[in-house]
Amino acid sequence: MALKKYITVAAGVFVLASFSFAADWSNWRGSDYDGISKETGLEVGALASPEIVWQGKVGMGYSSVTVANGKAYTMANENEDNDVVYCFDAVTGKSLWRHTYAEALDPKWYDGGCSATPTIDNGRVYTVSKSGHVFCLDADSGKVIWEKKLSFKVPTWGFAGSALILGEKAIFNIGSAGLALNKADGSVIWQSEDSECGYATPVPYEAGGKTLICIFGKDSVMSVDPADGSKQWEYGWKTGYDVNAADPIIVNYEVFITSGYGHGCALLKIKDNKPELVWESKKMRSQMSGPVLIGGYLYGFDDNKLACMEWKTGEVKWTEKAPGKGSLSAVGDKLIVISERGKLSIVDASPSGFKEFSSAQVLKEICWAMPTYVNGYIYVHDAKKGKMNDLICIKAGK
Fold first, then answer.
1. What is the pTM of this model?
2. What does the pLDDT read at residue 288?
3. Which of 14, 70, 8 has its CA nearest to residue 360?
4. Burial letters for 10-44: b for 16+ Cβ neighbours within 10 Å, e otherwise?
5. d(Cα 379, Cα 367) in Å, to the nearest integer?
6. What is the pLDDT of residues 270-316, one digit of tens each?
7. Quick one: pLDDT at residue 14?
């Protein structure tokens, strides 16, 4: 294993005995679409001497890992001309199936590869490629249930938003204000204007007794009614290279947005169905992985450092340069942080200051995929063009 010598591999029989399917992480940013696991039992010192339960191999890409019903899914590009959807046994790492289809690596000032994350719903896996090839696969076998090659204008960096399953719809950040397909057969339910889109995943929220979705588009954030695709409100937000990629966070008629390339962040208040600016700041510039909101404070990446920011005011409570660039998720009030260079850390989510409980250098190549925590295990992988990369499962909870 190309890992530091203090890392050990657990016996598969032990893992099987201790694994219980208490929770799933079946879509990008988890069951509540906020990057936060409600599980308990995270052992904050687990990374002082990390226990690698299993290690698999995946191609080139930045898809995160989703886990449902004891299976772990991700996707990547192999040999620069094929995408692969992978399914592993979440307990042992055994490869259960893989679905391969033609798709170019498409590097543009970076190594290229898959950007979206598989979504699992009711025994089916929904994926979308950078060029707009959508698949619905059987979650147990990988058999194609339906597929659809979209003809919408592809943004500069390819489609990156994952599928949002809402009722009978599979909703994508495709077109000027989203696209809804019938999740059963892939037929179009509604679509927006054929123009370039943003790179975030649609986020559902409740307002006025109904479910709406928030979409971070090419140069604005907007609310859309999932019933018919009608736009409810819109707020302009233009970022360099059109990279609006971090998912919005919505709480009680307030919407937080952030983007990189020197732009920053803002809190909006929706009043009379119109967005009003509460505050704006350049001190939380999240280019890819968005922050998490815990106890009234945002924890996320401000370009090349980790930061804590107060939701109500935008006041920065602390910053920490040690992680550099990276991504994160959370378990309760603890952060799981993966640096761009493969250092994994468990950090306290507290406005009083940066506190790292434990950490380890677990991967060697670029890590842009958000860490996933399910049933006491952390799943992370790295990415480098021209090789098969490491996907690892680390025991970190009871």
1. 0.94
2. 85
3. 8
4. eeeeebeebbeeebbbbbbbbeebbbbbebeebeb
5. 12
6. 999 999 999 999 999 999 889 999 999 999 999 999 999 999 999 99
7. 29
Over residues 88-112, the pLDDT tens digits come to 999 999 999 999 999 999 999 999 9
At 369 the three-state DSSP class reads coil
In the sheet that holds 343-348, the strands lie side by side as 36-37, 326-331, 334-339, 343-348, 356-361
- The continuous run of DSSP H or E covering 14 comes out as helix 12-18
> Is residue 92 within 8 Å of residue 16, measured between CB atoms?
yes
- Quick: pLDDT tens for 356-397: 999 999 999 999 999 999 999 999 999 999 999 999 999 999
Structure tokens at 329: 């998720």
CA atoms within 13 A on the CB side of 274: 2
Residue whose C-alpha is closest to residue 380's, from 343, 347, 354, 350: 343
> Does the structure show a pLDDT above 80 at 22?
no
- Surface-to-core class of residue 197, CB atoms within 10 Å of its CB (0-12 exposed, 13-18 middle, 19+ buried): buried
Task: Give whole-number Cα distances, 30 to 66, 120, 227, 288, in Å.
Answer: 8, 11, 23, 16
Which H helix or E strand runs over 18? helix 12-18
Q: How far apart are CA 43 and CA 26, in angstroms?
A: 23
Separation in Å, CA 139 to CA 65, 69, 88, 170, 372: 14, 9, 11, 16, 19
Q: How confident is the model over 199-236, as pLDDT tens digits?
A: 999 999 999 999 999 999 999 999 999 999 999 999 99
Residue 69 pLDDT > 70: yes
Q: What are phi and psi of 87, to 5 degrees?
A: -130, 120
Backbone phi, psi, residue 288, to 5°:
-125, -75
Reduced to 3 states (helix: H, G, I; strand: E, B; else coil), residue 91 is coil
Distance CA 120, CA 163 (A): 9
Closest by Cα among 148, 137, 168 to 73? 137
Asked if residue 99 lies in contact with residue 137, where contact means CB atoms within 8 angstroms, the answer is: yes
Residues 6+ apart with CB under 8 A from 268: 221, 235, 254, 255, 256, 257, 275, 276, 277, 278
pLDDT of residue 6 exceeding 60? no
Residue 220 CA to residue 9 CA, distance in Å, equals: 46
Contact 282, 260 (CB under 8 A): no
